[in-house]
Amino acid sequence: MDDIIPQFELSNKARTVLQRFLYKELIRLNLLVDHTLSQPQIYGLMAALVKKAKYHVNGETDAERITQLLDFIYQQQGFHCHYQEYFYTENILLGTVLRRRRGMPVALGAILLQLASALDLPLYPVNFPTQLVIRAEITLENGRKETRFINPWDGSWLTFEKMSKWLEGEMGYSAELNRDFLRIAEPEELLERLETVFKMALTREGRYEDILRVIEYRLAQDPEDPYEIRDRGVILASMDCYQAAYDDLSYFVDQCPDDPSAVMLKLEMASLEKHIKMNVLH
Length: 282
Known about the structure:
alpha+beta
């Protein structure tokens, strides 16, 4: 199945930017909603980890050094995902993840990629449908290139069979691995995945004001983004801000009438209208 792995070319600068992207975005989100650690303190935690990694990762080949890095992170340092306590914000807040050594795949993957950048290792993010996956481009001793995939959940190597089963569980038995699922991710895709997971975790904990901070940051960059406005409307409805929620959802439905969520949102808008009228009567 090697023929379905898309090839790519990145300059050293572009690779560094991509490897550090999730790390930088995680710091931004951390500082938006959690003030227990400052930015310099988070940098300090990561710098200490990089220093230790440089000591332990000392092999001669890419394959050897990548294996050493995985052993360092998941065995020596004890980073892991906890299945039963998976969907909590503490598993995506970078400062907490670095201190507790526990996080979601996207957070552990960000740490792995940041260390790869510091160690000059050919690791790249893949926006796989089920979770973030890390792609390793290994140069063998005979000069041949080999592509392998890593599960940031536990640092294990992923087979095509394993990823195919993931796809079946997520998309049905007709789903098959293809080139698009295995290509190197674009920063925009990574950001969408990261913020979606982050907002879902915050919603689960009822931290609506924090979600609004995340959304407003994005709207400051693009004030007319209909999807961020939709998300804001959903959160405002949960906070009983009926008129503001109605206005946001109405904007989204007008801008994206063919979006699959538009039908459900119209039902929500009808409910919001009733609340608005009741408030007027009272």
